[in-house]
Amino acid sequence: MTTSFAPLTVAIGDLIAHPANVRSNSPETYDPENIAHLKASIAVLGLLQPLLVQKLDGKYAVLAGGRRHAALKELVADKAAKGFTAKTKVECRLVPEDCDVTTALSLAENITQAPMNAIDEFEAFARMMEIDGQTPETIAKTFGTTVSAVKGRLRYGLIHPDIRAAARAKVITLDTMKAFAEHPSQEVQREVFEALTKEDSYLQAYTVRQALKSRGVQVSDDIGAFVRADYEARGGAVAADLLEEHSVLEDAALVETILLEKLGVAAEEARIKLGFAWADAMVRYDYATMADYGRVYPGPIEPDEAAQKRVDEITAELEKLQLEMEDEGLEDDAYNALYDRVDALEEEARDLQEAYSAEDLARSGVIASWQGGQITLHVGLVRPEDTVKEAGSRGSSANPTEEEAPDPGEITYPASLAEDLKTERAMALGAAMALHPEATLDLTLFKLVSDVLASGMSVTQAIKIDARKEYRSHAKMDEIDETSLEQVAAAHDALDLSWLDDSRSPADQFAAFRALEAGEKAKLVAYATASTTQSCFARDRQRDSLMHDFEIEIMPDIRAHWTPNAALFNRFKKAWLLKILGEDLGLAQEAVTLASSSKKEIVAFCDKLFAEPFATLTDAQRAAVAAWCPPMMQTAGLAFDEAEPTAETPQPDSEVAQAA
Question: Which ranges of the sequence are coiled-coil (predicted)?
């Protein structure tokens, strides 16, 4: 329609607002902040679309294009903008004075100027850089936005073409497409995309991000930042991203190797300095695994003459520092510096007056782990076998229950299997937390305020309220039961992420977040908290009563989120499988029959049994199959005797659990 109107050029100073413009009653539309990007674009590219005007009282009234008109006036007023004055003429289209459809024309232009399709916008930015040779900085200037916002759009525009095509065809959602930008390598993106879609299953953003995690470590991750220099020195491949923090160290195995080496060096240095017998390193210090370790502590000693002299000097300096800290006019930085000095002096004084005994040093050691973004040393640890052997030694944590060691014939879980079972349990717990947002919100807020307001130790170490996902490591991640993954993915898809828009400023994102309903916020908090759950076995009420009771409330039965499968049974010995079938599940006859079969056949039998319990099972056997899991994985929420198995099932405090 507009093409039939006569073209003409009009001086900016001769343009006025038209009363029939549908946006004329919305002054916020013309606020300088709202037209800043348009002003920047016109300054660089000129007026790309003519204004629609009508002669009115000797002037040209802008019927359609009010925001462009406002941007032009801003450029005239801006002395720094070159080439724009009141006499500068711009392209227009003239609507006859007797036209009676002016309001319809204005409305038509405004409603048909729909926002550009998101994928089109991402690809347009990418073409400007790849084909036109522009930089994120020049693109940002053209569109009046920030460089970081441009880079965010560019990242999506550089996603593998096959994945963008799938999003355009609505085979996957835009959010799922954006998830592939977590890894900057198009080849990796394509490989993950093909692997996740080969079974024609619905692809979710959550599963994409989980899959990409196994393909490297981002340099912004605290571990990535810590090992990066050594990693690059050894020739480790780095997938560079437009946003540096999203660049990826692609060789995850090399990253872990370097980290363990660094942790090992720190542990060995501490061992030599303190005189311990052994040193070890682990990426994540797992308190559940280390619960069976003892610990020795330094005892008081009589300092020699030189040491006593230093203690006296420290005492005198501490008294002086205390007087200085009582000065109410002291600045915060000065006070904190004095406080740090006091801490250092008190620690030095303790070291001069305390020491480990020779027998404790001979059996104890130090473990270095990665915790809170730094190396943490855990000193004075006594391994379980040394704790039992040296029961009653000074300063030791001897076996408090004085129970006998497990029967050698009992099932004992190797360390690698125990670690993976803890990972699976943490995943199941995370799913339960995500499915109980109100309870998880209460837990999160309680821990947050308790840790801040209460004195003493944290109420629980089981969750981390530090906005960082817990890394899930597992030797058989591709083979484990996917129930909890699917539940978490469904919970993620139900989240309202409308506020999470990379093109918005943090302030705008926060405003949109605050506008969410309480229930939506609860889901977001629950999902975030669930993502921080650490690998664990069932909690001990005495060690962590909070999480012990909370897990019982939200996950009375882990089997609602996890099912044993062939991946687990393959890692059991043949004798264990027969023992579980005969004693735990009441399938004694089947165990006898299978005793002459290969382990592969027994694994297949167990896998089918748990996937879909046989119709021939008795009620007691069916209940036992429905309830069974390695005892240290189940909370106390579901008593094993509820399943009424034919044979007694080991309880979490049994020898089997303790052996694990």
Answer: 304-362
Under the banding of pLDDT at 50, 70 and 90, the label for residue 105 is low
Task: Output 171-180 pairs: Cβ under 8 A, ≥24 positions apart.
Answer: 171/203, 172/203, 173/205, 174/118, 174/119, 175/205, 175/497, 176/203, 176/204, 176/205, 176/208, 177/119, 178/205, 179/205, 179/206, 179/208, 179/209, 179/212, 180/208, 180/212
Which band of pLDDT confidence, cut at 50, 70 and 90, is reported for residue 149? confident
Q: What string of DSSP letters covers 486-534? A: HHHHHHHHTS--TT--TTS-HHHHHHHHHTS-HHHHHHHHHHHHHTTPP
Enter the tokens of residue 624. Answer: 């036992």
CA 140/CA 135 separation, integer angstroms: 9
C-alpha span between 118 and 70 (Å, rounded): 26
Partners of 295 in the β-ladder: 381
Instruction: List strand residue ranges (DSSP E) for 284-359, in order.
Output: 294-295, 299-300, 354-355
Q: Are strands 51-56 and 364-371 parallel, antiparallel or unpaired?
A: unpaired
Q: Which residue has the tokens 């629609």?
A: 52
Nearest to 94 by CA among 71, 60, 123, 126: 60
| Rounded Cα distance, 512 and 500, in Å | 8
Comparing CA positions, the residue from 495, 509, 497, 649 lying closest to residue 579 is 649
**Residue that is written with structure tokens 């006499």 in the block:** 87
User: What are the distances in angstroms from CA 480 to CA 21, 471, 474, 577, 607?
Assistant: 62, 16, 9, 18, 12
Give pTM, 2 decimals.
0.44
- 388: pLDDT strictly greater than 90: no
Residue 129 pLDDT: 76
Instruction: Please say whether the beta carbons of 349 and 311 come within 8 A.
Output: yes
Residue 106's pLDDT band (boundaries 50, 70, 90)?
A: low
Residues 6+ positions from 481 with CB-CB distance below 8 Å = 424, 562, 563, 564, 565, 567
Distance CA 79, CA 111 (A): 33
Chain mean position to CA 27:
42
